[in-house]
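Structure ticket #2291
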Amino acid sequence: MNPWDWYRGLRLRWKIALPAVLFFAIAIVLSPTENSDDGNDDEKPTPSPTAELVARSTAETPTQPPTPAETLVADATATATPAVPASIPTPAPTEQAPPTPAAAAPLPATVQQPTIADTPSGIPAYDRDDWSHWSDDDRDCQNTRHEVLVEESLQAVTFKTASECQVGTGYWIGVYTNTAVTDASDLDVDHMIPLKNAHLSGAWTWSAAERKAYANDLSDSDHLVAVTASANRSKGAKGPDEWMPPDTSYWCEYAIDWIRIKNTWSLTVTPIEWAALESMLATCTDGTPSVTAPAGTATPTPAAAPTATPATPMPTAAPTVASSGYPVGTRTGEPVLYDPFGPDRNCGDFPTWASAQDFFEAVGGPSSDAHGLDQGDRDGLACESLPGGP
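Resolution: structure written out below.
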């Protein structure tokens, strides 16, 4: 066959078949691909080759192990501290309540009026050195002042040193001002009846031993009282006609204590002093105590039997060596130079060792050294550095 005729026949057959091919191709493209509505919901559409490739790639790709950092983060997340429940608010600390003073003893319904008398003229001048005070009679190293501080503190005291001789802190109520005090250095220990007032009220006739007993009396809890230093300076030696405690609620007790101590020691009160005391008694909240008459004539000393006193006392002359009545020393052969129970003495008060040693033995040495003349070496010899010393 002629090639040209074959080619022409092929073209003719293609022209005839092409419309049919195109028709069927279009029909296939336009036919629906969804599942039919016959209820066969289990039949799934066939995935495309691309989807199969992606799925196969994913399935065949090995899972990479986590890195150390990823492991640390995961562990921290897994072991994280569980949530802490909200804390209950803690109340703010409160200050410890101060000690409560013991209930005061009931005040007496009656008081005895002291002997009323004016201060006599011509009596010896008051000298504080005549009153040996702040002694340590029980030899426990705490003198009278510190004994009072220990007794009156409302809580256990602390001491300045391990020897427990001097009080450092505690809790006191200064009765004159109703002020709380915790530092002992802020306190004075006051004689309810000041030494000078006692002197003018009859104690000018007392012996040195009686003055010392009064100055250090611990038998009456109101005889010596711990008070603020400022209040004690303000009071000084004044009686109630010149000074009354700033705390007016204390006036009633102050007057009752003043009157009782005056009677205990047979001391007198002046007319204006008594008038002031009566005004203070009128402030008692439980009613003014009734006043009874004085118990006879006042005597100058609370311990000795009553003795008659001159109507107008005159000052006595200072004792001389010949008339002093002091013990006679074994070394000098003469009376000791000073009253053994008088004010404190030191080595500088003596001209010779013999005079110091005689005085030292007269007051109880060497077993007792009330004036400290043995100078701490406890060899039984006083003031060895004085002329004539051993």
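Closing remark: The two ends are 177 Å apart (CA to CA).
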